[in-house]
Amino acid sequence: MKEEKQERRIWAIAGGKGGIGKSFVTANLGIALCERGKKVVVVDADLGGANLHTLLGVPQPPLSLDDFIRRGMRNIKSILTETGIPNLSLIAGVHDILTLSNPKQGLKQKIMRHISSLDADHIIVDLGTGMSPHVFDFFLISENGIFLVTPEPTSLENAYRFIRGVFFHRWLNMTVNKKIKKLIETAMDGNNPEGIRTTVDLLAQVEDEDKETATVFKKGMSAFRPRLIINQARNRKEAELGFAVRSVCRKYFGLELLFLGHILYDHNVYLSVQRGRPFFSDYPSSDVAECIRDIAVRLSDGRGLEWSLS
Amino acid sequence: MVTQLKSWREQDYYEILEVGPKATEEEIRVAYDKLKTIYSAGYPGITVLFTTEEVKKIRDKVDEAYRVLRDPRSQREYDLMLRGEGERPTVPPPSPTVTQRTLTPQQIREALGTDEVHWSGETLRAVRRYLSLDPTEVAVETKVGKHNLKAIEEEDVHALPAPVYLKGFLRTYAKALGLEPHQVAEEYIEGIAWKGYKRD
């Protein structure tokens, strides 16, 4: 029972690009963890177009994050929806994109605080598309972010930019020093005239400005260990892109990223989404399901891959 | 694998190869192979954060790290240096498969001490010793196991692998020594037939 407690984690799933399968992975990773006897809640925090319920094959839930925020509800439990899959419940997303796609910091923290109070072994938060500050904030508040990347060059490029953005954003939130905030904002533009390119360059500049802040930044990074999943890999070579992304993060950011594994491309994923059925229920013994199960095991155990895919 | 917030410019050889300080020979080789592919021109997404120039520099550094760590002697020296107990070792030369070597007839004569060339376990060993390569080194480079190399050099027909594998191993080994692979494989296999090794 003690171990169960320790394992409880919040996973925010993000990736710069749209249509790379964030909701699909959220839903099915949730099911895979349930298969392992875990209690799981999946949360649709895609503030720009919620659809997680469709991927779980449930009708539009009557209550959503929307109600929780607007009506100032006290307890987030009241908006939990059963999914028909044992031990898996859902918090449906917001539909009015105009008012809430960019919530205030305090509200974001309130949402995350309530989400983390839920009684579950794993809570998976689907963050949706984009590289806006609010996506970065949710990613960072959750502490355990998962980057999802597909093998297309555009997705890779977005992923690197996303990681860079998250990294700088994390530091931005860690200081009140105006000069340093300014420095970070300058560095966020990759082509800045100051020539600050990498996080290591930036850290050197921060150190010049204020040694203490630099120490705080360094300490803050040791707890930051994002995960990585390659989705829609068509072959081994594409799956191995995960090693490349991990290596670039190590060499460019000096950041340790855990590569959880890959999910193969399968047209049946598209078909199951079209039918509005959970993929795991229709194709429980497919290669894709196996891939997701492997990832679930590594997620539970806190492990990543070394230099080989198995 | 990585000390946080250290860029590749400051990373030590283990960090450059992204392996632990206790990595085995095999782990080091696998990591090296993967990294060589990742830091090559045209690899997807590699120039999003790095310039082409930096990619090349990283690749060179990966090469350098591998050359030091795969050689037990320079690795030991390097480990001592990391602990502050010695000098940085000189980087060993690239391996035979990296610099595609080709032996001239004159060199082969020198290696064997005779004009008559017939490829066998004994003559292959003579060439290897002439090049002062040790079996471990050849095994790492060629990816042919040490026990197979030993069986080849000793012409131990009971320990030799099946013919389809043997042919491949012989060619790879010959190539690493700078010899003509097909001729070596043919002559060698013909030569051990009398010992009861079946061709097919």
Protein architecture, described:
The complex is a heterodimer of chains A (310) and B (200). Chain A is an alpha/beta fold and 310 residues long. Chain A is built from 16 helices and eight strands. Chain A has one domain: Rossmann fold, CATH 3.40.50. Chain A has an eight-stranded mixed sheet with strand order 3-4-2-5-1-6-7-8, with helices on both faces. The model of chain A is unreliable at 1-6 (pLDDT under 50). The model of chain B has no long low-confidence stretch (mean pLDDT 88). Chain A binds chain B through residues 151, 153, 156-157, 159-161, 164, 198-200, 203, 218, 221-222, 240-241, 243-245, 247-248, 250-256, 306-308, and chain B through 1-8, 10-11, 15, 18-19, 27, 30-31, 34-35, 38, 43-46, 48-50, 58.
Low-confidence stretches of chain B: none
Number of strands of chain A: 8
Oligomer: heterodimer
CATH topology of the largest domain in chain B: the name is 434 Repressor (Amino-terminal Domain)
* CA(first)-CA(last) distance of chain B: 47 Å
The CATH homologous superfamily of chain A corresponds to P-loop containing nucleotide triphosphate hydrolases
- Strand arrangement, largest sheet of chain A? 3-4-2-5-1-6-7-8
For the record, the count of structural domains of chain A works out to: 1
Terminal CA distance of chain A: 29 Å
Examine the secondary-structure arrangement and name the CATH architecture of chain A: 3-Layer(aba) Sandwich
Shape of chain A: globular
**CATH architecture name of the largest domain in chain B:** Orthogonal Bundle
Specify which chain pair forms the largest interface. Answer: A-B, 32 and 27 residues
Number of helices of chain A: 16
